[in-house]
Amino acid sequence: MKNDYLWDKTGDDPEIKRFEEILAVYRHTETAPPLFAAEIAAPAMEPARRWRLSFSFAFAAAAFAAIVVAIGISLIAPRSGGGETAKNPGSISTPTIESDIAGPVDENHNVTTVPEKTAVPSHAPERQTANPLRTALRSRRQPALPSKQSIAGQRYDALTGDEKYAYGQLMLALSITGSKLKVVQDTIDRIEDPKVKITDKNR
Amino acid sequence: MRSVISYSIKLIALLVFASAAIAVSAQDARLHFEKLNALETKARDVVEVNVDGKLLDLAKRVTVKLNDENSKKIAQAISGLKGIYVRVYNFENENEYNIADVEEIRNELNAPGWERLANVRSKKNNQKVDVYTMFAGDVMSGVAVVISDTKSVALVNVIGPIDIELLVELSGKMNIPKIDITRDSGPAPVIKTKNDKE
Predict the structure, then answer these.
(1) Which tens digit of pLDDT belongs to each residue from A42-74?
(2) % of residues, chain A, pLDDT over 70
(3) Is A11 left (phi over 0), alpha (psi -120 to 50) or beta?
(4) Considering only CA atoms, which of B139, B33, B130 is closest in space to residue B81?
(5) B21–chain A nearest CA distance, Å
(6) Which class for A126: exposed (0-12), middle (13-18), buried (19 or more C-beta within 10 A)?
(7) Which residues of B touch A161 (CB under 8 A)?
(8) What is the largest CA-CA distance in chain A?
């Protein structure tokens, strides 16, 4: 056997050639590299994926079309007259919260606990116009300013329980004091009235 | 040297005397409402409010914290306040309490230091209205209001200066009843108060 043919195919070696011909069926042939699992699995799921893609595109397209149509209608639709005019821009529809604070004293010197209503501002003022889109844009530009009462209410809500109790007790005491001073004031005013007949045992 | 020492001793004595006088006057402004414990058992309704010490300090901080217009005014009105005590007793029937218990409180107001501001008596319902003030120099150190009739007794004792004008201004707001200082234009009969309307 000549080594030259076996290594670089130079020369002639009939026996090696015969082996090459016999074993040619087993010769390695280079093919494409193996696919990853997702690429292998993709063809199996392809029909469902295609269906999902088509549905999502259709939905997006329909939504986009609806938005465009809505914008077009809102821009094209004529504005109404005085019937649907905007409400008072300053009005804010607000829920109210209640907090118990000492109330005034009635005629029987019974101190009533009167819930004090404080307003909590909403996110935006309510307007009734024919253009809801413009209304929404306008409300974003001009956020509603909370009223002074709502600020006080929020600050009162931020108080602790002890603080609320102390403040309530103080207001109760001041309330009763004010009511009693009112009784005194009314009595003195009537005394000073010359039409009033004074009955004073001490005189 | 001796003159300096003697002068210092006199000054210290004067300061001690002045501080003692102030302390005594502040203490005297407090009425002893514990004498009215007997009324509590007989009364139909009892209102007892004591705001002093740390509770009052906390309430003052709250008025500052709220930081709205009315709270600022209230804070200003009570800035020097040291205590406020309220007792209100309502009875089911007339003459159900011992008048002597209330007269003990009125006797305290006859002590030195108290100045009578108003004293009204009415035959109807046997109403008695008394308002006293106490001053430490030019500074108000106490206010006392005692109102009694056949079916109710009300006492208010304020220790320290309180701005009554601001209280009048704030009346009607912050649930403080409005104090009307204008005269009634209509004809007025014998002295009538709210209780006479019952």
Answers:
(1) 555 555 555 666 777 778 888 888 888 888 888
(2) 42
(3) left
(4) B139
(5) 28
(6) middle
(7) none
(8) 158
pLDDT value for B178: 47
Q: How far is B93 from chain A (nearest CA, A)?
A: 13
Q: How far is CA B187 from the centre of its chain?
A: 31
- Residue of A108, A114, A160, A177 for testing the chain B interface, max B β-carbons within 10 Å: A177
ipTM over 0.85: no
Which is it for the CA torsion B126, B149, B161, B21, positive or negative?
positive
A147 touches chain B (CB under 8 A): no
Spell out a b/e string for A127-139, using b for 16 or more CB atoms within 10 Å of the CB, else e: beeeeeeebeebe
Do the Cβ atoms of B55 and A102 come within 8 Å? no
pTM beyond 0.80, yes or no: no
CA B1, CA A36: separation in Å to the nearest integer? 109
Residue B187: which residues within 8 A CB-CB, separation 6 or more?
Answer: A195
Closest CA to B42 of B102, B93, B97: B97
